[in-house]
Automatic annotation (TrEMBL):
InterPro entries: DUF2993. It comes from Corynebacterium tapiri. Residues 227-260 are annotated as: Disordered. It comes from the Bacteria. This is DUF2993 domain-containing protein. Pfam families: LmeA (PF11209).
């Protein structure tokens, strides 16, 4: 029995890996990525999707993507409860399949977010021992050397989403040269229209994780299209659910990011 179980596990793993490889190849080509993204199809065993008609989760992750005006970012797309035919479950061709929940995240580490602030040595961390849960508001501890300063400054900031706009405001200046606290706070005050990010729509969640500020958007009850599986929004202006971020940014239709 153990041998039969092991054989079944190996066959199931091989089928899942083949599906993941096919999705990865298709996304790499359609999204014009420099490297193949990592793909995971959920369900243990995976072949139960042939009977249930549902893949519990599909995730596509790309690391170190160079995005114009942002720098290097990490990106992830997740679609939950994808309803598929047996043929789709085996082929990995999910286009046209209904999905119940779509999530896309873009993570900006200290280098990428520091580029927006003009701070080249920015460090991002959680201000407390436990990670903020995230949502429309969160908090972060930032350390770096703003322009005009010789030594590093440390502040605790509030991160807040107000409609499409992300606001970062200093709650506490923990370490700064005496008499320059307000100047330090101004250097870490920042606003940005989140439709500038390569998400599928404006951000609905902001959090801090693994030294990065993470923006997330969600949609419910989608029909999977090529752009949905890409880790970044492709900016396809013909897609009514896409932010078409690149076209809008280049056309000057979105407000510029601002620091105080």
């Amino acid at each position: 029995m153990a041998l039969v179980g092991l054989l079944g596990w190996l066959i199931d793993s091989a089928i899942a890996m083949r599906v993941e490889a096919k999705i990865s190849s298709a996304v790499e080509e359609s999204a014009d990525l420099a490297t193949s993204p990592a793909v995971y199809v959920g369900g243990v065993p995976y072949v139960t999707a042939l009977l249930t008609g549902e893949i519990p989760q599909v995730t596509v992750t790309s690391l170190d993507i160079n995005v114009e005006d942002l720098g290097i970012v990490n990106a992830r797309t997740e679609i939950n409860r994808v309803h598929v035919t047996p043929q789709q479950a085996l082929s990995g061709d999910l286009y046209g399949a209904p999905g119940e929940l779509f999530k896309r995240t873009v993570s900006l580490d200290g280098v990428a977010f520091g580029q927006l602030l003009g701070i080249t040595d920015l460090d991002i961390s959680n201000p407390y021992d436990i990670s903020p849960a995230g949502g429309v508001a969160s908090e972060a501890k930032l350390t770096g050397t703003p322009k005009g300063f010789e030594d590093k400054v440390t502040v605790v900031v509030d991160l807040r989403l107000e409609s499409p706009t992300f606001h970062m405001r200093v709650r506490e200046v923990q370490d700064a040269p005496a008499g320059r606290e307000q100047e330090a706070a101004d250097a870490f005050t920042f606003s940005m229209d989140t439709r500038r990010l390569p998400l599928s729509s404006q951000a609905s969640n902001v959090s801090v994780s693994a030294g990065s500020i993470v923006f997330e958007t969600q949609r419910q009850n989608i029909v999977v299209r090529p752009g949905d599986l890409a880790p970044l929004d492709t900016g396809d202006a013909a897609d009514e659910d896409s932010s078409a971020w690149r076209d809008k940014t280049e056309a000057g239709e979105l407000p510029a990011a601002t620091t105080r």
